[in-house]
Design the sequence.
């Protein structure tokens, strides 16, 4: 195999891997092209909002759902995303913490009920 063929093969593999990674990132509710210019706290909050709305929407109140959707809309627009300060992520992160506490309580009650049933 010539060096040209090896180089071509490496580029094709890199392109495939990049496409797969971008698909995974998009499935997490993020945009891979905005990573370099967006604060990490905002990215975490965006992922948290996506997870809450897609997987735990039954635990959200209407006002929480509206706040998370508004945050996702702001993060989807490049101009508004660039104007956001890291403190704007607090809304989504605080809601996420509250829902995580609820999930932990539910899980703990399930475990306790199982241990009581087996004893």
Sequence:
């Amino acid at each position: 195999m010539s060096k040209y063929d090896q180089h071509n093969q490496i580029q094709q593999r890199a392109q495939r891997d990049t496409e797969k990674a971008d698909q995974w990132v998009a499935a997490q509710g993020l945009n891979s092209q905005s990573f370099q210019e967006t604060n990490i706290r905002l990215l975490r909050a965006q992922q948290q909002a996506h997870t809450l709305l897609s997987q735990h929407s039954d635990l959200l109140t209407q006002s929480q759902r509206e706040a998370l959707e508004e945050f996702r809309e702001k993060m989807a627009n490049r101009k508004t995303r660039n104007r956001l300060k890291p403190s704007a992520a607090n809304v989504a992160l605080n809601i996420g913490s509250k829902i995580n506490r609820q999930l932990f309580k539910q899980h703990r009650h399930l475990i306790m009920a199982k241990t009581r049933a087996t004893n």
User: Anything to note?
Assistant: Residues 1-30 form one domain. The CA atoms of residues 52 and 60 lie 8 Å apart. The chain is about 75% helix and 0% strand. The first helix runs from residue 3 to 27.
